[in-house]
User: Fold this.
Amino acid sequence: MAPDGEPETRRLLASDYTATNGAFTLTVRAGTRRGPSHLHPRLSLGVPSGGLARLLLVFLVTEAKKRKSPTVPLGRTLADLCGALDVTPSGGRRGRLRYLFDQLLRLATCSVAFQWETGTGYGHLGRERYRGESVLLVEAYDLWWERATATAATGAPAPIDGPAVAGGTITLGAQLWDLCRTACFPLDWRKIQALRDYPAALDLYAFLTHRLDKLQTDGAPEVALNYDQLHAQLGSHYATDEAGRLTPRGKKDFGHNLRRALRRVQLLWPALDVATPRGRFVVRSTGPDVPHR
Assistant:
């Protein structure tokens, strides 16, 4: 068992997540924690994933923007943080407290790499070019988790489902903080909360808000995107060919899930004007969901 009471086998998580579109590759690398022995000195914490990880990232960026500082305090206890996120602070091995702290630690320790690889192959006429950039979402973090104090009668450790406190701070990476100050666009926190259990719909909501903000800035009436273009922004491991384009099966599966996510977004955003003719996604300019102040 791990020090936190979880089986060590549950810690053997993926060390990275990779998505490729043509020459571009996005890689999210997980942080690590101390392993159980010298044979396994480090174990992957896993990459941040799911709606809660997205919710945490939006929260951190929002708080940094409001405070005009890259350093965000997380409150005195995990319950305080849960209150700020509107997450029920349930305990136990599978409770939201443990899951929240786990996703927070994953987010704080991961790194993101952007790579572009182009070329015409080997040989005396070959030409290749490699470009890349690495981004730290979090530059510094100080997190702690502590179960309730030992019982007074026996001195034994508190039960694993007992109350817990935590705290600390997170400092956003320099590049992310620069983007927060110069290129942020507002989202409706209520919609983020409503969609947190539907990661695909949450991603689509953020994408549409960004595109509608750009349409308003450019003065364009609409933008039409095909499924391959949308897959490059929102897709994950749908079937593609060697050139990175969706296969017929991949396009069918992606289109089905995209339309299902769109229906969830439209329930919360009635003013949204999006048409889905065969194989395309047409977004008509209605202005962003939340106007800039």
Confidence is low (pLDDT under 50) at residues 1-11, 158-163. The CA atoms of residues 201 and 261 lie 4 Å apart. The chain has two domains: 8-183, 189-284. The two ends are 51 Å apart (CA to CA).
